[in-house]
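Your task:
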Amino acid sequence: MSIDRSLVGSRQVRSFLPAVFGTIFACLLTMVSLAAEAPRMTRAEAFLGIHFDFHAGDDCDRVGARTTPEMVQTVIDKVQPDYLQIDCKGHRGYSSYPTKVGQPAPGFVGDPLRIWREVTRQRGIPLFMHYSGVWDDHAVATHPPWAAVKANGQPDSRAASVFGPYVDMLLIPQLRELAGEYGVDGVWIDGDCWGTTPDYGQKAVREFCEQTGAVSAPRKAGEPYWNEWMEFHREGFRRYLRHYVDELKASHPDFQVISNWAFSDHMPEPVSAAVAGLSGDFSPDDSVNSARFAGRCLEDQGVPWDLMSWSFSRKTRQQKPAVQLMQEAAIVLAQGGGYQAYFKQDRDGAVRDLAEMDVMAKVARFCRDRQAYCHRSVAVPQIALLYSTAGHYRESPRLFHWAGSNGVAVLRKALTQMLQNQYGVQILSEHHLKGKMSQWPVIIVPGWGYLEPEFRDELADYANAGGCLLLIGPGPAQLFESERQTQAESSLVAVEGVDGTFPSVLKRAFPAPIVEVRGARDVDVSPRMLNGRLSIHLVNTSGPHANAPDGGITVVEPVGPLTVSIRLKQAPQTMTMQPENTPLEITWADGQATVTVPRLALYSILVVDP
């Protein structure tokens, strides 16, 4: 490049040179960073992350003004995460980076995404994008043919149609821009399965009628073809998900896609897309109970998974204290999952308060101390609590969510009761149990009014062969009415509901669980295996976590002493409480190893060495 020396010092050159040299500097920085690029783990390997988002909108006219390398470095230095997950397009449909494919926010100061990418690349930290999928206010407002159509014939104001061109016209091209132009590692797609809604547009209705023989689409539950109509849309979403995952794998094989709440408690079915993992953000309030449920719905899906806390209360908008997040994290870790927490970005995209990273740093140390004893552990079969895919989808008012499902309501009440009585519980669906029922001493059917006949018969055979089948509520009792008249009460037990007598009934039905804990009610107990060793995970769930005070939970009072008895074939050599590395004195009698845990602060693991 040559410059006319007569122009040096002119206003034009004074304004031109910084841009030229800035571009050269940026190119040199990129070349240097690529040469020194540190290796990055995959999402499947990851254990701990941080999520940031702010759902950019038309009010965001200075995005990037305060995004600096130092800001990103501070986050990494304080927390040492396995990955970062940041905003790029939220529910409003505006992108928080200067996209050439989608709808950028109104104004930018530089390119903040390049700063996040360069720093994370240099530090060997994977970078994932928070991207709102089906839910995109701007896309459906500016392209009405992309929107799902409501039953009244009006376009939906937020949901794109999974049968329409949105996926090929915007979603896939924008993900390719992120993968190719910016080199990000993957995407966490929000507002996806749970944002999908029935579509009464001409294309969807025509395809449905051709498949089923219906002459029109039903408008409400109870009308002919309603169940088929709902399943048609569920399969429509599955095809939509597989389509964009496969397209990205074809063009960018290393790009990793996670669809928020796919194949989870919202979508209790086999994994049928090549996603990199499963994930969801559980309830920001009543979080412990939410995580208890969500984690157990993910742990047996055969795919790496994590769950996300909101670091603040939705009710008060206040930051949660570190110990409150630790208690939430403990529930996830005790089921073998990875953990991440969500912190807010400001409307210009900067991390809202870097001091909050001190809170996350404490939570991260808590998790890291336990990682070697919990990550990817698997449950020892004890009680299988049935989350019936068929029963739930028949009664759910939504395509992909558990709210409004009577069976799920009964299931969650039963789960809480069992955990408060120190039972090990897995939440399992038909695809987990078919052909494998004998692995579980007890199977509980909570509230479902419908089961597929073949699966119902397999449950009846399980009870007839000596397994304990416990039925909760009138629906399951009616499904097994003929067996209740003929089979022994010890193998097929029916109760009216989850009330005060339920634990007593369960005690008679399952008198010899692998582990028993005495000394405190508020202790979740999870017997698990990791690297060939049995471990007993104990989580202190005391405190007002179901309805936390406005200032959050600042203290979780320790419980104990606890007496823990474990049924084993032979006396173990040692039992150690981790991460405290405290050896426990073992008493062996009648096939049980008994130890005393003098104090359970929050979450400890008893590792048994045979």
Observations:
- Confidence is low (pLDDT under 50) at residues 1-27.
- The longest helix spans residues 226-251.
- The CA atoms of residues 316 and 534 lie 41 Å apart.
- DSSP finds 17 helices and 27 strands in the chain.
